[in-house]
Amino acid sequence: ECLRYLHENTAFGLLIGGRKPPREALPGSFLSVDVFDEASLARFCGQCSLVINCAGPASAVRERVAAAALAGGCHYVDPGGYTPLFPILSSRRPEIRAKRLTFLLTLGILPGLSELFPVYVARTCFDQVEGFEYACVGRDRWTFPSAWDIAWGVGNIGNGEAPVYYEQGVRRQAGLLASGRRMDLPAPVGRHTVFRLMRDDLQRFGEAHVYGNNWGRWVTLATVLVRLAGWYGTERRLAQSARLIMRAAELDMRGRKPGFMLHLRMRGTLRGQPRSVVRTLFLEDTYRATGLCAAIGARLAAEGMEPDVFRAAQMPDPQAFMRHFLAQGYVITGGALPGEWGRL
């Protein structure tokens, strides 16, 4: 999906790296790459001006591809959600800026579009935001790398992945299981159990309550089991958990379609007047949307963005990103909310 977008919307030359050639015809040439082999990565990055890292699991690949891109003088885009990658690369900010490079991290759906969406709504609907409530819910047939990263994320809540929220600008932390609640969401999701799910990417807002979960009972039960049983401390345990989550996802997907929903209620002021809005973005194909996020980020970085390290919520121009994303057939629905609004 990433390659298709770049082929259809840019004039960039495309080089595909992987363990073996793609099974279907894709634009671009192919070069064999092993992300755990420094020489192999260096050979690949030496032929590029920008590298998009779609290899996973993100929590296993860590900073390997990013380091090779930096050494090769390449811009870098990563849809993976491995949180510690940001502080690792932040420590190398002077080198990244000196080389005039742009590094865009966590530019997938969750994290990524999920953090960028409320920033976009805030900038396009308000002069000042007072607070918001937000739910992110999705399901698909998760691949092994995706399921591995889900397990890693569940296991590392409390280690840089804490379920936090903000009240009157004060950061508060919630217990994982105690933070669960039933929530009524628009069709096709409907009523579903969600849990607090938030890092500090959105701390700029005075009041922020973010919830999320997989859209289905079996993956929900699997992730709770992973957390309670501690099946995330070693690679063997993570692999075991990934297989469990994959099986649970298959059960949740029986006779159902994939999808991902971002549902936001936000309040603030516009031209001095109080305003409340609701905005919903529903994605029918999570893998297509993830590929588009990475590709659009790469397009913006290549077309000119200030040299630095950014996470999705920190991108300099979220409006430009969303214009390109919505042009791919996605629609934001919603309207204004009269009077006071309470919980979602």
Describe the structure in brief:
The protein has about 350 residues and is of the alpha/beta class.
Would you kindly provide a written description of the structure presented here, covering whatever features stand out?
By secondary structure, the chain is α/β, with parallel strands linked by helices. It contains 12 helices and 15 strands. The strands form 4 sheets. Strands 9-10-11-6-12-13-15 form a 7-stranded mixed sheet. A 4-stranded parallel sheet has the order 3-4-5-14, with helices on both faces. Helix 8 packs across helix 9 (217-229). The longest helix has 19 residues, at 286-304. The two termini are 33 Å apart. The model has no long low-confidence stretch (mean pLDDT 88).
Q: Which band does the percent of strand residues land in? A: 25-35%
Helical proportion? Answer: 25-40%
Largest sheet: 7 strands, mixed
Strand and helix order:
HEEHEHHEHHEHEHEEEEEHHEEHEHE
Query: What is the 3D form?
Result: globular
Distance between the termini: 33 Å
Treating each run of at least 4 consecutive H or I residues as one helix, how many helices? 12
Structural class call reads alpha/beta
Mean pLDDT: 88
Rg over CA atoms: 20 Å
Enumerate the strands of the largest sheet in spatial order, edge to edge or round the barrel: 9-10-11-6-12-13-15
Poorly predicted runs of 5 or more residues: none
